[in-house]
Every structure is written in structure tokens, then in C-alpha cells.
Design goal:
This protein has 394 residues and is an alpha/beta fold. It folds into three domains: 63 residues, PUA domain (Archaeosine Trna-guanine Transglycosylase, Chain: A, domain 4, Roll), CATH 2.30.130; 113 residues, RNA methyltransferase domain (HRMD) like (Transcription Regulator spoIIAA, 2-Layer Sandwich); 189 residues, Rossmann fold (3-Layer(aba) Sandwich), CATH 3.40.50.150. It contains ten helices and 20 strands. The radius of gyration is 22 Å and the shape is globular. The N and C termini lie far apart (65 Å).
């Protein structure tokens, strides 16, 4: 198949020769006049060497490389790539009867830049972050059903808020294959309602699975406060771990309702749990000191781009300082940042500054990241976005 050809300025091929999958607009010397957003293109060095094939889009990142070979990007291509991603999850024991909620495709980490696929039971939720993946959505949906046999029956496309707005693609959230069957999925033996129709992201934060299990280990006999609880994942694990009391806090009344439904789904009416729809900073400010000896801070991204970095770091420092002030002696703090623009070192410095501000003696027990179904392409370190610390506070 013949694809439009993009030629780079001399010397701008170096990152591609190191297998970094992005071509920035400033590196391009020649762009075909009839090229359109979402087109599959072939990228060449100034000396004529063919460097790779990928999706073109308008913006700073002009091409996302799909393959370093000269091969067609067709149905067979997506079947091969998705099969490799699925087989890795099965080989690692992630996709199993005990865990039916997991990420099957993590963009560049699975060599499919611009594509996210989360699986909840027999439903796959697909998100496109590039015009090229938007146009490939039906090929992706068909491949998902094909490679999983009867595992995936429904494919829901949810990209209204993830595609570049300048592309004016007018994406519609809809079922590409099948329809709604059930909203219950299983994670490490616990059941959760997942709202992929109206919820954040794809409906559930599967990237905290391993960290939730670690929290369960530390929960026995403790009073737990889960801030920014969303669907209550950490709360449910804390209850299974033997927490004597769990309080879930979120500013969204819908999130609180979903948290309560998930607690009831696993523990009926027997759990020592309560939930409050209130602003996190207000709750922490009014909370009595020493009320809880295990606190989880898992806020939404404070910095969605580098321009917001300074304010984000101030926000992390302020939030963590409040938790350090209020946590009981001998308490454990789980604190996270999911902002890709915030580096591991910057987040750690913000937390360190918060600890120093309060004068508490703090020790790091664990340094956390995303789980294995959110792999990081070794040539694309930008794919590592989740940072977390588990801290012991004297």
C-alpha cells in the first residue's frame, strides 16, 4: 500500500533511530500538500532512509510511529499487535477469572500509540487519543473480539473527551460491537460496578490494582481515610484487609453513591464504612487531629500539561502537609500523583517539603508505580506517569 511520505530535516532522525515513537513537527522538512489528520504516513530521513510508519496529526507531536518496518497498517496489523498485548496479560496472570478488570492496551507501552483499551468482564472500553486511532476504531473493535474468542462480546468507544479538539472529529461515545450486559467486573476477587458510560476515564482506575493490594496488607486494625475515593477501590480493599473503620471522601455525590454500591456489593451491610460528599481540603481542615492512622491521597491530575506544573507542585505540597498535620502518630500515608507532567523527583520533593513544613518524622516504606498491564516502553520513558509513596509518620 502506498502512504504519503514525510521527510525530516537532516539530523532529526536520531530519536527515531533510538526507537522513540514520536516525530515532532519542528523536525519535518517536507509534508505532502494533500495530507490529512489521521493519515497513515511513511517517515524518511533526509538521506532517503525509511525510518518508520505511523499516524499523522496536526500539533507538536506530528507523527506517532506504529512500526519501524515498511508494512501495511491494516486488520492483520491490529490483530497481531492486540494478540501480543493480550498474551502478555494472560502470561502474567493479570487476565484471569479472579481479575476481569485490567488494561489490555497501554498506548506506546504496547506499541500502539494513541490507543487505550480497558477490559471489564466481557466489555472492552476503547479510547483513542489520536485521529489515526479514531479512524482505526472499527478495525480495533473487530480484532478485540476475534483474538479473545468469547471473552469480549461488547466494545464501547469512549473518545469524546480524549481526541484533539482541533481535529474536529465529532466523536460519539457508542457501542461499536454488542451492547450493555453487566457493569460488574472482578479485581483480585473483589467485585466492582464500573460506569464506563458516564464515569471518568474508562470508568475505573485499574492502574491502582497492585497498590490497593498493598494497602490491604497495612489496613488490619487501622482507621482508614480514603480521600478522592471515586469508586471506592481503596476503601473496599481496606475493608477486606480488616480495617476497623473506613471513611470515603469525594466531592462528587455520584462517586460517593458508586463507592457505597461497591462496598455493599462485597460486604452487604456489615462493613464499618461511611462516605461523605465534601471537598477534600475542607474535610482535612475540619478533621480532628489523630482521627485516622491510615490516609490515602489519590487526587486527580493536578497538572495536565507542563504549564500547570508550578501550581500542581504547590497543590501536592499543600495537600500532603495537611495530611501530615492530621494523621495519628504511627500512621501510614499512601500518597500519589497521576500527573504525567510531574516527575518522580518533583513529586517526592513536594512531599518532602510538606513533611519538613510540619516537622513530622517521616520514613519511606515503599515507592510505587503503575502495574504490569500499564507497561512502559523502554524507549518511551514518558509512559511512566503514576508515582506513589507509602510513608510511616511518627
Amino acid at each position: 500500500m502506498t502512504y504519503p511520505e514525510i521527510i525530516l530535516h537532516r539530523g532529526k532522525e536520531e530519536s527515531l533511530l533510538r526507537f522513540h515513537p514520536w516525530v515532532f513537527s519542528g523536525a519535518i522538512r517536507h509534508l505532502p500538500k494533500d495530507i490529512e489528520e489521521g493519515d497513515v504516513v511513511r517517515v524518511f530521513a533526509a538521506d532517503g532512509r525509511m525510518l518508520g510508519t505511523g499516524h499523522y496529526q496536526i500539533g507538536s507531536i506530528a507523527v506517532r510511529i506504529l512500526t519501524w518496518d515498511d508494512e501495511p497498517i491494516d486488520d492483520d496489523f491490529y490483530v497481531r499487535r492486540l494478540t501480543a498485548a493480550y498474551n502478555m496479560r494472560r502470561a502474567l496472570g493479570i487476565a484471569s477469572p479472579d481479575t476481569t478488570a485490567y488494561r489490555m492496551v497501554h498506548g506506546e507501552g504496547d506499541f500502539l500509540p494513541g490507543l487505550i483499551v480497558d477490559v471489564y468482564g466481557d466489555t472492552a472500553v476503547v479510547q483513542a487519543h489520536s485521529p489515526g486511532m479514531h479512524f482505526a476504531r472499527n478495525m480495533v473493535a473487530q480484532a478485540l473480539v476475534k483474538i479473545t474468542g468469547s471473552g469480549i462480546c461488547n466494545v464501547y468507544y469512549k473518545s469524546e473527551t480524549t481526541l484533539p479538539y482541533k481535529a474536529q472529529l465529532d466523536a460519539t461515545n457508542e457501542y461499536l460491537i454488542g451492547d450493555f450486559t453487566t457493569d460488574v467486573a472482578v479485581e483480585q476477587g473483589l467485585k466492582f460496578h464500573v460506569d464506563w458510560l458516564r464515569g471518568q476515564k474508562t470508568g475505573f482506575f485499574v492502574d491502582q490494582r497492585d497498590n490497593r493490594m498493598l494497602l490491604q496488607h497495612y489496613s488490619h486494625g487501622r482507621k482508614v481515610l480514603n480521600m478522592f475515593c471515586y469508586t471506592g477501590g481503596f476503601s473496599v480493599y481496606a475493608l477486606r484487609g480488616g480495617a476497623t473503620e473506613v471513611c470515603s471522601v469525594d466531592s462528587s455525590a455520584k462517586a460517593i453513591a458508586l463507592t457505597e454500591a461497591n462496598v455493599a456489593l462485597n460486604f452487604a451491610d456489615t462493613a464499618p464504612h461511611r462516605a461523605e460528599a465534601v471537598d477534600a481540603f475542607d474535610y482535612l481542615a475540619q478533621m480532628p487531629t489523630g482521627r485516622y492512622d491510615l490516609i490515602i491521597l489519590d487526587p486527580p491530575a493536578f497538572a495536565k500539561h507542563r504549564g500547570a506544573l508550578k501550581n500542581a507542585l504547590r497543590g501536592y505540597q499543600r495537600l500532603n502537609a495537611r495530611a501530615f498535620e492530621k494523621i495519628a502518630p504511627g500512621g501510614i500515608l499512601f500518597t500519589f500523583s497521576c500527573s504525567q507532567a510531574v516527575s518522580r523527583e518533583q513529586f517526592r520533593l513536594a512531599v518532602f517539603s510538606a513533611a519538613a513544613q510540619t516537622g513530622r518524622r517521616v520514613r519511606i516504606l515503599h515507592q510505587l508505580t503503575q502495574p504490569a498491564d500499564h507497561p512502559v516502553n523502554i524507549y518511551h520513558p514518558e509512559g511512566e506517569y503514576l508515582k506513589g509513596l507509602v510513608l510511616y509518620v511518627e
